[in-house]
Amino acid sequence: MGNKAKTREDLSQELIILKNKYKKLETGFKEYAAHSKKIEAELRKFSVAVEQSPVSIVITNLDGIIEYANPKACETTGYAHDELIGKNPRVLKSGETPSIEYKGLWDSITSGNQWHGLFHNKKKSGELYWESSTIAPILDSNGNITHFLAVKEDITKRKEAEDALLLKNQQLAELNATKDKFFSIISHDLRSPFTSILGFAGLLKNEIGNYTDEEIKNLVEIIYNTGKKTFELLENLLEWSRTQTGAMDYDPEELNLEEVVLNVISLADQIAKTKNISISYNIPANLSAFADLNMINTVLRNLTNNAIKFTHKNGFVGISAIRKTDEIEICVSDTGIGMSENIKDKLFLIKEKISTRGTENEKGTGIGLILCKELISKHNGKIWVESETGNGSVFKFTLPLNENR
Prior knowledge:
The chain is built from 11 helices and 12 strands. The protein is of the alpha+beta class and 405 residues long. Strands 2-1-5-4-3 form a 5-stranded antiparallel beta sheet, sandwiched between helices. It has a 5-stranded mixed beta sheet with strand order 7-9-10-12-11. A two-stranded antiparallel ribbon has the order 6-8.
């Protein structure tokens, strides 16, 4: 049988149903359009925020190739947008960030973790800058890494300010250490020998008639030696104070090193003889340095006296020099007691108090090596020590060659 023909009422009902479906579709389209506009507005807002961000924003693919860089990234690095796209961020490497930092970064972000740290990078112009970076993986709906996002801030000015503050603090600490050292020497090291001098001189003054000639000679010798040591300390202290206040004149000239060394040996020979220590030298003929005579005399005098002080009786002290490409290296060596690594690390530091007595219980000046470092620094030279406990010491320092040669 054929289908029964639809009545007018049936057609009317179907039309009503179609109209209702249309209205629902129309409403749905309107809601979708409104939602799309809202999403577009949000995207536009985020896009503007990223484009106008005061920090650099860079997106790379899984191979680390840059796919997006905002204007701030271009401004900071000095590269145009087209120059960054398709490049690897390693184009910014200065060579000053350790490789282990990059390995740690890569291991972290490829494991799905966020990484934060500092880079010392290089701009297109070659200028170095500090950058604080946060790098994180971008995940898809299934949790798979698709890209990497880097948010970076140029902190060069802040880093420079922090470094300047750190330097100021270090300088302040050194000034305080210098002041403490100065007053320590005045209150103890300088006062103590005067007590001895006055005490023995007082005995002679009041009891000289009760002493034999030999006893008087011994007392006078003690007073003389103590006075000589005190004068040496005072001389070092005055020179050191002049280096700290900038009052010491630096007057370099051509110096015949052999003549300078022979003069120092003649002054130290009397002290060496009391311990039967031999002093030898090996200076190439006509070897000259461009240096301040008074300063170099002071350095050699302190190093030679120290070598004698820490060498046992019947030992040896040697002074030598060799010419290198652009400097002269001078060595003061001994066959003495040597020193540990711990002592070596502290020898030239103003904040450290090294008070080791010599092999005959001799006291030091407490300032000699620090003064030596200051004076060699005036010549843009270096001073250091090579030593092992029980195997003697070699103090070395460098001086510039005669500027006319």
